[in-house]
Amino acid sequence: MNALFFAKVFGSALVIGIATEVAKRNPFWGAVIIALPLTSMLALSWLYADTRDNALLTQFARDIFVIVPVSLVFFVPFLLEAKTRFGFVLNMGIGLALLAVSVWLLRRFMP
Asked: What is the pTM of this model?
């Protein structure tokens, strides 16, 4: 692995670390940081730096655009926590299962 790979990992981890530290103080602003397409921007930037392939970037951006609304089902168990009282681990499991099924359905029925 080269130095660029480690720079990518560090830069990406830094964004997540900052967002979680901000969320400890103010969940709304932590959510704003995460809701921004920062990871998509980083991934698009790294992909472009690695490939300079605009067609690949276009396909990648299109796939992100389609997947983002589908991925929102992951949050449903957490939003229902006040009624279900399942706790973090079970909500995470249910959210991941919903996400897996949603992405599978998307992949199955979308070209």
From this structure: 0.74
The answer to whether 106 and 67 are in contact (CB under 8 A) is yes
Do 79 and 46 sit in the same domain of this protein?
no
Other C-beta atoms within 10 Å of 77: how many?
20
- Whether residues 44 and 73 share a domain: the answer is no
Q: Give how far Cα 89 sits from Cα of 15, 59, 96, 110, Å.
A: 24, 34, 11, 31
Range of the structural domain that residue 91 is part of: 66-111
What confidence tens digit (pLDDT) does each residue in 17-32 have? 999 999 999 999 999 8
Question: What is the total count of domains within the chain?
Answer: 2
DSSP letter for each residue of the chain: --HHHHHHHHHHHHHHHHHHHHHHH-HHHHHHHHHSTHHHHHHHHHHHHHH--HHHHHHHHHHHHHHHHHHGGGGHHHHTHHHH---HHHHHHHHHHHHHHHHHHHHHH--
